[in-house]
Amino acid sequence: MTIAGTGIPIDIIIERFCAGDSYELLAYDYECNIDKIKEVIRFNNPPIAA
Q1: Angular region, 5: left φ>0, alpha ψ -120 to 50, beta rest
Q2: What is the pTM of this model?
Q3: Of 46, 40, 43, nearest to 21 (Cα)?
Q4: What does the alpha-carbon distance between residue 2 and residue 36 come to, in Å, rounded to a whole number?
Q5: Residue 16 burial by Cβ neighbours in a 10 Å radius (0-12, 13-18, 19+)
Q6: What is the rounded distance in angstroms from the CA atom of residue 50 to the CA atom of residue 48?
Q7: pLDDT score of 4 more than 90
């Protein structure tokens, strides 16, 4: 799967975010809107209930 309209693979975004890359860095590197990056992370890594 990719971010709609970009061709950017979602798994790469998730992998880099989990490795410590910030939303800002990912948006910059992929020339993508930061809100789309945040949505990908939120959708694919839901919070863990305590």
Answers
A1: left
A2: 0.82
A3: 40
A4: 11
A5: middle
A6: 6
A7: no
